[in-house]
Design a protein that fits this description.
Length: 322
Amino acid sequence: MKAAVVYQPGSPEAFVLEDRPIPVPGADQVLVNIKAFGLNRSELMTRKGLSPMVRFPRVLGIECAGEVVYDPSGTFPKGQQVLALMGGMGRDFDGSYAEYTLLAKHLLHPVSSNLPWEVLGALPEMFQTAHGSLTMTLAIQSGQTLLIRGGTSSVGMLATQLAAQAGLTVIATTRNPAKETALRENGATHVLIDDGALKAPVTQLVPDGVDKVLELIGTKTLRDSLTCLRPGGVCCMSGMLSETWSVPDFAPMEFIPPMTYLSVYDSGQLRSTTEAFQQFINQVEAGTVKLPISKVFTLDQLVDAHLFMENNLAAGKLVVLT
């Protein structure tokens, strides 16, 4: 099989596309033929050496869509379509940047769909993070106002659609004015050009502050995002597009405004159900949700795909077909 291996952290050119034996599943493992996988900013961080617990060499990739080749336990039949994400993929063990991988049974979501593989490959992490952030952490309700910081990311664009369908007013941000039209066409009620200080423009739109914030940029903009909340408002940090793990000299009494709430969503700890994934697939098939896919690459174009991601050229999800 072909696999893209990182032997030492570095630039996108650190990927080595090589031939490897197809692995053999052990107890409670399933051999999956990967058909497609989405790219994620966390993989870029790992490739750069910014994920301290990851040891190299490593095949990266925290999500995939594919088919079961062999399940020794017989739980999953050969040919079963599956989605998988997180659980140590691409970090603790070799992940999805390959034609085949071994996955623990509990990581698999068996689904049924006629969607093309590039659409299914875009789905796992994007849906789970957007859906989980909005429903589990933020508990959005119709009539509320939601600020999505990092609106042109794949999670941001899907969250905009889901929130707008749920009856929320969505304020989406981008640093690039050329992407404003794409955000409005995606369902954002308002678009703000993010210069790092959003309190003034947000309060011009919503004088008392927004009800909820979905923070996808991360620690660099988190403090400013909290100032955009109304008293009693909630901010959920679900992304780290800024590639920074921590807040220097964090002082909670100064950092978090009074009567506001800060939480997180971590798709490695909170999982959407298989039923939720299937229902979402049904929505995509019915055309009620449009997955924001920016560009599709092949496995031998992985270096170009990471360069595209690193240069912030996407407005939506990047997908790789194997």
